[in-house]
Amino acid sequence: MSDDEADPELLALLRQHLQGKLTLSEDPETGVLESAEYVCDNSIDVALDMRSCKNAAAAIYAQMQQQEYSAAKWSAHELHPKAKDEATVAFIFTVDLLNFSFWSEKPDADRFAVSYRDKRWTGYWSLVAALQRALDEGIPITDSHFWQDEEECTLDVLKHVFRSSTDEEMPLLKERLACLREAGTVLYQKYKCHPVNLISEANGSAAALVNLLARDFRCFRDEHRFEGRRKPIRFLKRAQILVADLWACFEGTSYGAFQDIDKITMFADYRVPQILNSMGCLAYSPPLDAAVRAKREIPQGRSWEMQLRACSIWCVELIRREILKQHPGTKINAVLIDFFLYDTMKKMELEGLESIPHHRTRSIWY
């Protein structure tokens, strides 16, 4: 080929770019781990204790082995769907579209709760229970066509779907409606109205699917500025947990088959930082510790909040590496560690064994 001739491969790439089809590299990265390490290296109010991280790695590994903890735990819960089909994909997409901000300052008896199947559900499970209840009642709450219909999918309908057995409403209902509305529009415009087509676009890559979610859906674009750094810090909590839930539900097959699931990090929320602090892995500066213990709300996007989230991601990554170092060949990733730590913290809460409250931040990101 002469210098004057156009390179057909370059032309094909340019054509894909202009058509909006060139979206993913051959080996995509989410940038979450890089962001977490940067914030951790520059953190002054949250610090990692390396000895405690090593001790935690040993304890977590031993307990997970004892409990035979695996991705199969996801489907074992009575509220999670059991079918392995497109309807389950839509259900998981809806859950993680709305999977944020369930904490309450009210006593347990008065907090937002959902009554379903003769049980009372709070926290994350109140969301899952409410969605299952809505489907039982014939409300197509997991259908993106419904989300787009401004006459059918209204705030009043959402209030009915998420009606509480107490006087407290589910937090951020208007924001949840906005998430549904935006997701319905994007799925209609780009993915033929169903998340299975979004998954297909990722070509079996967990990182690629996370990046697609962050690129196309503002409500999944969990990235923020930190201390004047020009490049945004990426957390992408709900985008990552959506991928993880698909992987766990389908046990690494079908819609949950991702060859790079190990690129998914811990999901930066408020429960895992709580247990990492309880285990001595994370230490807080006196002002931050006092704010957390006093249950003062920490604004989303401020330095304290970003340090808490980022240091938790990096801490779980170090725990994962330590487990693999001590037990080469074991099947472990940040997803399983996160699931295990979350479940353990919730159990400790129910048993009244919390040594410190979780931090309070009200946002759509977690």
Automatic annotation (TrEMBL):
<keyword id="KW-0378">Hydrolase</keyword>
<protein>
    <recommendedName>
        <fullName>Queuosine 5'-phosphate N-glycosylase/hydrolase</fullName>
        <ecNumber>3.2.2.-</ecNumber>
    </recommendedName>
</protein>
<comment type="function">
    <text>Catalyzes the hydrolysis of queuosine 5'-phosphate, releasing the nucleobase queuine (q). Is required for salvage of queuine from exogenous queuosine (Q) that is imported and then converted to queuosine 5'-phosphate intracellularly.</text>
</comment>
<dbReference type="GO" id="GO:0006400">
    <property type="term" value="P:tRNA modification"/>
</dbReference>
<dbReference type="InterPro" id="IPR019438">
    <property type="entry name" value="Q_salvage"/>
</dbReference>
<dbReference type="Pfam" id="PF10343">
    <property type="entry name" value="Q_salvage"/>
</dbReference>
<comment type="similarity">
    <text>Belongs to the QNG1 protein family.</text>
</comment>
<dbReference type="GO" id="GO:0016787">
    <property type="term" value="F:hydrolase activity"/>
</dbReference>
